[in-house]
Amino acid sequence: FAAATALAAVIQPRTPHAQHRRSCVPIAQTVDASRRNLEVSDAWVFESKLGLQQMLSNNRPFEQQSLAVFSMLAANAPPLPAADTSWWRGEYTLRSSHALAEWLEDESDQQLLERSVVSISIVDERVEVRMQLACGLSLLFEGAIEVRAVGAAAMITLTFDDANFYRVRAENNEAMVSPMDVAGLLQECESDLRWALPSAEEPTVVKLRPLFVDGELLLLREASTRAGRTPLQLVLSRNAPPPPEAPPPDVTDAAAELSE
User: Taking residues 18-27, what's their average pLDDT?
Assistant: First the structure.
């Protein structure tokens, strides 16, 4: 669905389905939430999720319209799945990668590879964030994840304690690059990385509040930041699981047919 579909739904709400309605505040206009509400349908939520991802594609920054859709979705968030204590685990794609691209450019001469995908993997209590750099390297951050309930909400704490470089191969396999190879490759494309990568001695800690969680999308906002810095707003889409493998052929039946 086109991004315009989601934007139109923000400004002019659709007629809701009779059996699926939610109430939310109209973020697209400045209004008193206590005096005016909109009702939106599940179809609006579905289309808005698609529209938000499209508006943020190719490292695009948040703008007024995408911020409005982000806020509207957060206002219509379903309750966290309390019975499921592993809702945060899985494979994700970071849709709001502009902040990461901006951080790279601010801290170094590096850039994200154009149209590349930033992937996030959460298995058990560990998290990996993998990105491809324009210089020809893939950078992998690794760390721990802790999720604790805060009333009806939750707090996610990410503690990144390791980072490694990989060379991106044409066949899309990655092999760890030795320190000497890293130095040579960086000298060819970008000679200096000026940021301090996380380590066990100096980890990087990020605290996030989940604002919207369902089987397809996670919206997160940074809980605390340094003075003068805008809190991060993150959009993660859950990757579809791989299709199940076809069962092996029944060799017993085949042998029986041949014997007949």
Answer: 36
